[in-house]
Amino acid sequence: MAGPLTGITVVDVTTNISGPSLTMILADLGAEIIKIERPDTGDDSRGMGPFWEGEGVYFLHINRNKNSIVIDLKQENGSKIVYDLVEKADVFVENFRYKKAEKMGLGYEKLKEVNPSLVYCSLSAYGQDGPLRERSGYDAIAQADSGIIGINGAEGSEIARVPVSVLDQGSAMWGAIGIISALLHKEKTGEGQLVTTSLYETGVFWVGYHMLSWLATGQEPKKNGAGHTAFAPYGAFYASDAPVMIGISNNSLFRRLCNVLGKEEWVTDPRYETNPKRVENRENLRVAIENILQSKPADEWVGLLAAAGVPSSKVKKISEVVEDEQAEAINMWKKVPHSSIKDFKLPRLPFELSNSSAEVKQAPPKLGENTKDILEKLGYDEAKIENLLKDKTIQNTEEKAESR
């Protein structure tokens, strides 16, 4: 089954996490991704450990379904190859620092001359304007700047970032939505355009209701750990062997929780009879709930709570999620052949389409694996390719997965 972006060609000069995550989304949806990498080292994420049979797990996660070509963009011949690729492409994606693309001859205005209908996406740290636009930034830096770290964790706890690349991959999502929107506009009008997004914009959007809370009350939002400002009981409560996450947002759910815990009298207790009262007395309620939960293991409590319709889950370790029967039931893992990793599998995109599905078709490429093939498709003859190899404008590796 062909993906919805089948027939779309994307020239990808991104590196690290954000840009490659964006082009991974497009790749899974069927687009052909021509991933341009620097000589010798390639994408920075290739060197990010831990390593699995010599491959960096960061790279493995977000570079499936792509073709790798190694080009030295500092050489004039290298730029010429990129222009040849862009001339026949639909989309160009970069995540350089502010104005670096322009200095390299790869800015929007230049590439629009090469291909007037090009959809060009620039994914940056802070956006195209403002006093911070020239700063480089990584996920954790943008988490700090957008207020996420400031509200993360519990009061009095050590400062901690959200330990997943929430802004790298969040900005990738917005970039992908922007590109797909621009492609739809192009289909209707024939016009290409510039798409921009950034880690900082994503972070500010994510904390939106916390900002509105401050505007409404004049009070800085408090850190809540696993809890919630607006509801109680809401958070992680320790059973005999592990924490259980419980979420109560209304009186009906609280009544069900009380029935499971054998504390029906709490429903009419003046301290707990309304959500505002429960929020006011959340600590007393937390201690009382944990005293009861200590009598059984987490899985048993979750079974009882789920049967009663109470939102709950064991706080799972990553190792448990990998083997989780729910993830298995919804086919979150997709196996793909890899030249050096046995039983290699990757998580699919977290949505499905009934008639034009996203797919994980092939493992991430070796560095420069597709250089020769891509140039041949551009019309470069054997002699020209050999000359480019000799002057080190390009690199090519014949090491390919045996199964491909």
TrEMBL record:
InterPro entries: CoA-transferase_III_domain, CoA-Trfase_fam_III, CoA-Trfase_III_dom3_sf, CoA-Trfase_III_dom_1_sf. PANTHER family: SUCCINATE--HYDROXYMETHYLGLUTARATE COA-TRANSFERASE. Keywords: Transferase. The keyword Transferase applies. This is Formyl-CoA transferase/CoA:oxalate CoA-transferase. Pfam families: CoA_transf_3 (PF02515). One of its GO terms (molecular function) is CoA-transferase activity.
